[in-house]
């Protein structure tokens, strides 16, 4: 698929005056809907924003004949480890690393067959990417597993030290005066204390082992069903362990928001994984929302990662289209968001939002939005059957 996009290509559906009024009232409430109960870790995570090197941008002047006229930004939706499909898409695009720059909308990894290969490709071509919810989860899991491993090593060292101390005390006991009852009582108390401490450590270790054994049994039982929770956890643990330090560091370096700069026909362009609030400054966006949001439930005053509320993209488009109708559509006030995360909706190209997750890992398509000189845009898609097991 090679679909040409001339400026703003897909306007919002018409709404009645009353619907528009209600929508705008909802938009004004967005900044008050920062409830992400159950995501405290994300709430405390600092929001990372980066700006793309301006030298990578194609010229906004369509008449340019310099080297910048060959530059392209190739922005690709959720890959999810489908490297064969990514390779095929790049071949279809005639990708040239010397003048093309790759940008990913996050979720490069997990679910698909070759997550490590996708990360290596991105690193090889010095690609840019934002942090998706899957990268976030796998990196967290990796950190937890490393911490548990260190804790286990520390526990083993403590036990060895305790045994050495016990042997040392025994040697001292041999040299002590057998007739000194005071020393004997003191030693007995110390021995009891050590035995108690040792018993506690043993009990803690056994509980930890029992817990691990139960977890391992559950994982083995559930691994047969890929879609079951246990299978998912086992798969994600495996991926977290397989990541090299270099691969993990590259994923950690990905920002949550990537600012591309001003592009003709789009205004200020930003890339995120999931979504943005339309009336909140980028620096004040909530990290969990940026990586997970799909809709907003105004009744419950919550941002949702489901489709049960009003879609954030609909609100975002209404916000900026209203500004444009009020003649506030200037380079400083217009923004276009390019995102992924929503394979259920699929490819969703609107005036101010471009959703590129087209369900590659489910056997559908992998989408690239190509931005060329003068702000010219086109869509290129690749079928993803090669990465999906029958």
TrEMBL record:
One annotated Gene Ontology cellular component of this protein: cytoplasm
Organism, as annotated: Aspergillus cristatus
Coiled coil (residue ranges): none
A Pfam family per the record: Metallophos
Annotated Calcineurin-like phosphoesterase domain residues: 72-145
Matching InterPro entries: Ap4A_hydrolase, Calcineurin-like_PHP, Metallo-depent_PP-like
GO MF annotations, alphabetized: endopolyphosphatase activity; phosphatase activity
Segments for region (Disordered): 146-239
Name of the protein this chain belongs to: Calcineurin-like phosphoesterase domain-containing protein
Gene3D superfamilies: 3.60.21.10
Biased composition (Basic residues): 184-221
Compositionally biased tracts (Acidic residues): 156-168
Residue ranges, compositional bias (Basic and acidic residues): 169-183, 222-239
PANTHER family: METALLOPHOSPHOESTERASE, ZINC-DEPENDENT ENDOPOLYPHOSPHATASE
Any one Gene Ontology BP term: polyphosphate catabolic process
């Amino acid at each position: 698929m090679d679909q040409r996009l001339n400026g703003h290509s897909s306007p919002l559906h018409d709404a009645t005056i009353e619907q528009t009024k209600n929508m705008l009232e909802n938009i004004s409430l967005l900044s008050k809907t920062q409830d992400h109960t159950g995501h405290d870790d994300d709430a405390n995570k600092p929001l990372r924003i980066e700006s793309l090197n301006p030298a990578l941008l194609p010229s906004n002047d369509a008449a340019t004949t310099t080297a910048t006229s060959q530059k392209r930004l190739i922005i690709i939706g959720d890959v999810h480890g489908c490297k064969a499909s990514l390779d095929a898409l790049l071949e279809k695009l005639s990708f040239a690393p010397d003048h093309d720059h790759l940008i990913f909308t996050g979720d490069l990894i997990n679910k698909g067959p070759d997550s490590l290969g996708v990360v290596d490709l991105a690193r090889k071509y010095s690609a840019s990417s934002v942090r998706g919810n899957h990268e976030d989860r796998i990196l967290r899991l990796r950190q937890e597993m490393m911490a548990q491993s260190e804790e286990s090593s520390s526990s083993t060292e403590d036990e060895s030290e305790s045994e050495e101390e016990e042997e040392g005390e025994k040697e001292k006991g041999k040299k002590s005066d057998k007739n000194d009852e005071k020393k004997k009582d003191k030693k007995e108390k110390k021995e009891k204390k050590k035995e108690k401490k040792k018993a506690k450590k043993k009990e803690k270790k056994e509980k930890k082992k029992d817990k691990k054994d139960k977890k391992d049994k559950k994982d083995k039982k559930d691994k047969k069903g890929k879609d079951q929770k246990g299978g998912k956890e086992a798969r994600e643990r495996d991926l977290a362990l397989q990541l090299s330090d270099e691969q993990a560091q590259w994923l950690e370096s990905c920002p949550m928001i990537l600012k591309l700069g001003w592009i003709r026909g789009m205004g200020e362009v930003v890339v995120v994984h999931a979504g943005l609030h339309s009336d909140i400054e980028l620096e004040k966006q909530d990290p969990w929302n940026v990586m997970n949001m799909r809709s907003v439930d105004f009744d419950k005053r919550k941002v949702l990662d489901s489709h049960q509320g009003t879609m954030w993209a609909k609100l975002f488009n209404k916000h900026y289209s209203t500004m444009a109708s009020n003649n506030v559509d200037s380079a400083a006030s217009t923004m276009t968001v390019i995102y992924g995360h929503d394979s259920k909706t699929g490819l969703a190209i609107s005036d101010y939002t471009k959703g590129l997750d087209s369900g590659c890992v489910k056997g559908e398509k992998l989408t690239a939005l190509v931005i060329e000189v003068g702000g010219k845009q086109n869509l290129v898609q690749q079928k993803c059957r090669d990465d999906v097991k029958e």
